[in-house]
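Q: Convert this sequence to structure tokens.
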Amino acid sequence: MSAAPVTVKALRGALGERAAALDIECVAETGSTNADLLAWARNEAADYRPRLLVAERQTAGRGRHGRRWHAEPGASLTFSLAWPLRAKELSGLSLAVGVAIAEAIDPAQEKRRHVGLKWPNDLWLVGADGQGRKLGGILIETAPIDIGRVAVVGVGLNVFEQRVAEASSGIAWLREIDALATPLAVLVRIVPALIDALERFDGEGFAAFAARFADRDLLCGRPVQCSGSAGARSIDGVAVGVSRSGELLVSTAQGVEAIGSGEVSARLAEGHAAAPTAEAARLPC
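A:
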């Protein structure tokens, strides 16, 4: 199942007054919306007006560490938003963005199923048993400008059912919790929430989002394995939340270690259920 492509006219009409703050472009196909907006920010931007680029299909969509992002045309929502920021410290930005998107697509956070956040930039659909499947991902890249930096926020979400054979975590889609979800309807909910979050982050940083992230923190209280780049040591322990700047906190035999999102990726330890262990449940989150 799939939906009609998102158009500029339909998007502006649905966003109403919120569209006035944005330059909007919708394309049938591109390599990467993030790459396109980074090139615009570096070479073509004059007034650095916020810019939204939506693509029905990306031929070179990327996740963290250069991984490929798989998305079925018409069944997925893929877009990037370029937003100028004056803040010098951007630590925790991907977590703040994750909070904004999760709350926009899952405001009720039902106990039976809800959207959780897997540090540092994945959205998962989680069942009552704590098990989850990947619903979407976030990739944030920046480019320097006169007033600070342009943050290019790339988002990929599965809207309709689709299958990705190499996705070890499994795949989830929004239609599982929202029978009326379409790429346009979802985008109209996300964009205002994302704009509000970026404006607030620019003034208050991640601290303004910390408690809301904790409400949806998928790793907290669970055994994790954190692996860095080639030659870097692996860190095993129990996730105990995040710091005020968005670092993952891992309780190890040597104490609690803070891990920056640029250094490692984290995953649930193999052989462990997704629900917290008895030992982990005693640790603060």
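The chain has two domains: 8-215, 219-281.
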